[in-house]
Amino acid sequence: IIGGKSASSGNFPWQALTDIHGRGGGALLGDRWILTAAHTIYPKGAVGNSLSLEKLAEEANIFLGHTKVEELHKIGNHPVRRIFIHPDYNPDDGYNFNGDIALLELKHPVTLGPTVLPICLPDTTNTTFYMDGRMGYVSGFGVEKNFVSNELKYVGLPAVAREKCQSWLDSKKGDMPIVFSENMFCAGFLTVRQDTCQGDSGSVLTVLDKESDRWVATGIVSWGIGCAEGYGFYTKILSYVDWIKKIMREN
Amino acid sequence: SSPVPRKLFGVIRSPGYPKPYPNNNISIWDIHVPKGYVVKLTFQYFDLEPSESCFYDYVKITADKKNLGRYCGQLGSATGNHPGRKKFVSKGTSMHLAFHSDFSNEDNGTVISYRGFLASYQAVDLNECDPNSAAGEDERPRCQHFCHNYVGGYFCSCRTGYQLQSDHHSCKVECSSELFTEASGYLSSPDYPQPYPEDLRCNYSIRLQRGLSIILRFLEPFEIDEHQQVHCPYDQLKIQVHGRQIGEFCGVKSPGSIETNSNEVDILFLTDESGFSRGWKIHYTSQKIRCPQPVPRDQFTIIRDLQPLYQFQDYFIVTCKTGYNLMQGNQKLLYFSSVCQADGTWHQSMPHCEIVNCGNPADLTNGAFSYVNQSANNNYQSVITYRCNEPYYHIVTGTGGDTFTCSPEGTWVDQNGQMRIPACLPVCGKPVTPLTEVQR
């Protein structure tokens, strides 16, 4: 997290620390599902993508329940039973993060408490969470000032209108054939150095639904051009609610 | 002495007959006939010197140690004792004739010849059954009951129910193995209501099918020799059930009715050698044997369609009030019935009812239950409520709610009778310590 603050215990009880191909983030859904980015499992263009999901599930380390990495390791790993990657995700296409969403099914349900609580999914009929300027918070254990963080950081970021995102992206991408699909949205600032960064992938951007007084996950940290150099791009969870619910229901 | 061959008939002649008999002669004949016959003797011709009281010449006839007469004279003579056509009949099987002549046969100096006699005898069948034919007056009748004569002998027979004894004279009641197998009937002492015979050893056995109980009802008159001080010393009427004596009776007081509770009864009647009591008579009937009235062991036991009386092959069914289990010892029963057996016992003992216990309620993951009622047990009608560990979980119940009751079936059910317990689902998006930024 660039330009963020340290989270206090219980501020982001859904925050998971993942260690699959390196540091990543995730969010607890229910009591045995971790929502994360697909590219934390199959990174774009990585040589290790030949590993099966079963093998990756065996080797995956998931931590919950604390803001300190060291303490999380002490608490212990939550083993993964299965990994579900959205079928649209293509690890071989380094410039298209469409479908960058995955679900990890834990072998054992976690006991909920003050430091471990799930995040809500958005109501598919409610699109106000993605309106330009809608503030949200994103947390993560990712890079901060070139160093991976040893504690959970968070930063408040506004959602940005699609046209602004596209305009900014067009100005920045140069020859890069990066894709900004309908299943993504961007958030952040152009001038303020507040953003997510490497190691935050898979963490969720959340907004407070005032009507229900609940925090709702709207985006998954997915990609960006540099860190804190403009907007960050997030998987639009609203596009995948049906898929998420289907996976969870069927399993 | 002239031996007479043992024949059924014959002729006896005086010495020299038909010529005159000699003087000073004594001749004796012993006539014997077979047993069962008597001797009948008649004179075809008789001509002996007449004299007063047959003093000189005579024929003397004896039979059965009795003198049948002393005979002499001629047919029509004024003196003497001519036998004429008289038939001499013995009572026994022999007859003795003795002829005697003196030294002369003269009448006023004239020698007279007398030719003697010619007699014939025959064996005549003896009617032993004729009371007048008894050899001696003090002799008992030849048969105790019935006498049947035949030529040369006789035999005895007895009235119905009696048996001729080995002495071929006596009759004795045969009552040592009387068997009665009808469902009801009468039995009595021999000759009832006439006095019963002496020395009886009667055994009357009633044998009915299993499950029947024999009832004995004594009729009047009831009379068995007794003693005022000693219990039944002379004659005894004993009632036995399966070899066990249930009564011994005598006197004139009827035992009335006896319910034996058995399908096998033996009645022994023993008498001594004397007495003049009229005996007894029993009308026996039978009914199905009864079993004890079933009694519930507790207030929760229900005996279905309780009958006032239970007999052989009747049965009863036991259930429990709602919320109670039928138990036999420690074993839970799904069904119970007991059948009245032939020996008057129930084939299964009465069970008891034990309150249903639902066991510990199912644990609710991430939640708990608590007892609503103070007794806090798992018995029938106990009530519990499930709750979840709030605020991290919220409860999801069926339409029957979160309150469960211990059912009669031994399961915890909600208000809709469903067993499925609630679930505790995670509460999302509700941090206990949400992010609050003071600085603006």
Task: Please state the CA-atom Rg of chain B, rounded to the nearest Å.
Answer: 54 Å
Order of helices and strands of chain A: EEEEHEHEEEEEEHEEEEH
The rough form of chain B would be described as rod-shaped
Helix content of chain B: under 10%
Structural class of chain B: mainly beta
Helix content of chain A: 10-25%
Distance between the termini of chain B: 184 Å
Please state the average pLDDT score of chain A.
95
Q: Largest sheet of chain B, if any?
A: 5 strands, mixed
The largest sheet of chain B has its strands arranged as 1-3-8-5-6
**Residues in β-strands, percent of chain A:** 25-35%
Topology of helices and strands:
The complex is a heterodimer of chains A (251) and B (440).
Chain A: E1 5-6, E2 15-19, E3 23-29, E4 33-36, H1 53-59, E5 61-64, H2 69-75, E6 80-85, E7 102-106, E8 135-140, E9 143-144, E10 147-148, E11 153-160, H3 162-173, E12 184-188, E13 204-209, E14 214-224, E15 231-236, H4 241-250
Antiparallel strand pairs in A: 1-11, 2-3, 2-5, 3-4, 4-7, 6-7, 8-11, 8-13, 9-10, 11-12, 12-15, 13-14, 14-15
Chain B: E1 2-3, E2 9-13, E3 26-32, E4 37-47, E5 58-63, E6 66-71, E7 88-89, E8 94-100, E9 106-107, E10 110-111, E11 116-125, E12 146-150, E13 153-157, E14 162-164, E15 171-173, E16 178-180, E17 185-188, E18 201-207, E19 212-218, E20 236-241, E21 244-249, E22 257-259, E23 264-270, E24 281-288, E25 290-291, E26 301-304, E27 310-311, E28 315-320, E29 324-328, E30 331-333, E31 337-339, E32 352-355, E33 367-371, E34 383-388, E35 393-396, E36 403-406, E37 412-413, E38 423-426
Parallel strand pairs in B: 1-3, 16-18
Antiparallel strand pairs in B: 2-11, 3-8, 4-7, 4-11, 5-6, 5-8, 9-10, 12-13, 14-15, 17-24, 18-23, 19-22, 19-24, 20-21, 20-23, 25-27, 26-28, 28-31, 29-30, 29-32, 33-34, 34-36, 35-38, 36-37
